[in-house]
Write a structure and sequence with these properties.
Structural class: alpha/beta
Strand content: 15-25%
Number of strands: 30
Shape: globular
Strand order of the largest sheet: 5-4-17-16-15-6-7
Number of helices: 28
Oligomer: single chain
Number of domains: 3
Distance between the termini: 57 Å
Helix content: 25-40%
CATH architecture of the largest domain: 3-Layer(aba) Sandwich
Length: 722
Amino acid sequence: MNTKTVHTFCRYCLASCGIEVTVEGNRVTKISPDKQNPHTWQDFCAKGRTANQLVEHPRRILNPMRRVGDTYVEATWDEAFTDIAARMNALIDADGPDAIGLYYGNPSGFSSSNIVFMNGWLDAVGTNNRYAVGSVDQNAWHVVADAMYGSLVMAPVSDIDNCDYFLLVGTNPAVSAWNWLETVPGGWRRALDRQRHGARIVVVDPLRTESVEKADVHLAVRPGQDWALLLAMVKVILDEGLEHEQDCTELATGVAELRMLVAHADLDDLASRCDVARTQIERVAREFATARAAMVVTRTGVSMHLGGTVAEWLGHVLNVITGRMDRPGGRRFEPGYVDAIRLGALAKAKPHKSRLLDRDMVAGAHALSELPAEITTAGPGQIRAMVINCGNPVVSGPDGAKLDSAFEQLDLLVAIDLVQRESHRHAHWLLPAVHWLERDDLLSFTSAMHDEPYVQYGAKAVEPPPGARQEWRIFTDLAIAMRKPLFGAKGVNGFIGATRRVARLTRRPSMEFGPHWIDRLLVATSRKFNGRRVKWRDIMANPHGLVLGEREFGHFREALRTEDKKVHAAPPEFVERARELLAEPHPGPPEGYPFQLAGRRNRHSMNSWLNELPGLHPSGKMNEVVIHPDDAAALGVTDGDRVRVFSAVGAIELAASVDDRPRRGVVVVDHGWGSRIFDPRGKQAPESFGVNRNLLIDGGPVDPLSQTSALSSSYVGVERIG
């Protein structure tokens, strides 16, 4: 049997770890870190090591499957497209294009071809009913970047190796690595190295996380009140004249408005809201402002609350007013080899307000919390057909039971995925996608999110099953079957058909129009390094990846897309929202629900994507509810007891883990569990892994700026079963 070694990179998260894949025949036998990769492999984890388990999943969908009664039968792609196209076109003819909706999850974001051609299909259909995972944990960042820097995708990266003071808010890099909408390979190891040379690490988190264990200071903030802590720090810095005068006058606008905001805020009030001692806040604020080099880093733990956007904003404000932008040891802008900011502006979705709640889109999509009502409420624009593209929204988003019920009422539900997950159980069609081990990728759109200029071609390791198709091809073929012009551009479908005929006649598959054409164009127009553009042959000649140049400062100002080319430090809508939060009563639990529900990061999980793989959890351990010993004693709960966690919208049962890691009054249940994996052939019972904690989250209340639900600060009750 032939054995080969393929060097590529993992596409489960932005860390993009270089991997070495050993293949025998067409089967992966081993995945290990590629230690010849010059940029990233140090964060390699079990998710990448076991990636082939999803490729080989015994319940993998291998061909299109059509629902017949309570089971599914295999069909051809022509049968699938003919039926789906006819049903969708009939709905569009009857009710308009908004009768069609689409939701896409995190996996689609790690395939540039998926995102590009998915949006091309949406533009072909003309629907405004677009939903994404961003409203679960990411929207606050996009809203802040757009308002402050003028671009939804401008992501400052961390200069860890020169930093003397790290303020880490709502992040646990010891587990999650130093990546989210930026990536710093080996970032936590590099931060600890700085600490050994005198740097201080301050972690803001309601839990004593793995990162807290190594930190110099832990601020055990009350969930959802990060904004109060950060506003208090801004107040101390401005009141005591610790700001960076040049940046406050030349780089930024709005500092006067910030001064007016903090003038009306009381330090004792803010300290009480976040439940961190005023003296501790003052000390950290002064240390941060006077450190030679420092940075604030905010992550999803900040965003998943009703005040999340204000907290995200204030983290950026602290970096701006203390002179931490575009300076060593702070945050800088990495241009990458592709101008993602320009491409993001070109691809920006047209404005649209949701039908029922009159809310704007955020980053090109409406909030997931609105989707159930948009399906079940009759009237013009009601969603009657839905595509789920590589997502599991019943588990990822709030009030999953309501969304599941809504999906059951659809005239047509199409799921594109590798297996049939919880959100697909009412699907009329299951369309088999390919795994990243089975496709080529060039993630050029994320090149500005690495901490150095870097490029790698993601070569496929194995061939996909004959009946599976890449998502870009599915969307292209569906547009052609519906006779809707891909990308909304007349003539495109005919052009694609012509290139396919040429490819067949010449027996050269590369002649067919596809994502490889776009990849070549992006590389051909890439940014210059050392006086020359990166060449396609350079990329292909470096299978381990290629570092294109040195880390540079000085690109931040030129990357700003605000009209005045300055950072807008006090967008009016953020200031107004902060005033609203200051006017609200102090946080407190409602009657019968004394605990706040928080989450935490698990190194072997990736949201709702991978928890159904037993190989990632060989001990058989699933999610549990973590309760502080004092709270457990008051409830009569001991370690391992079965408990019921309940809210106003749902209840779950799971085992208790008594541990002093969370602060009192906070219980922790990991996000992303509770998805069943079905056997679409109907021969075996569903496999179930853990419980869905988001069944407890009311989708009604949202952050008005990001439209994110309170997934990590909602109130619940806990009781021992029996």
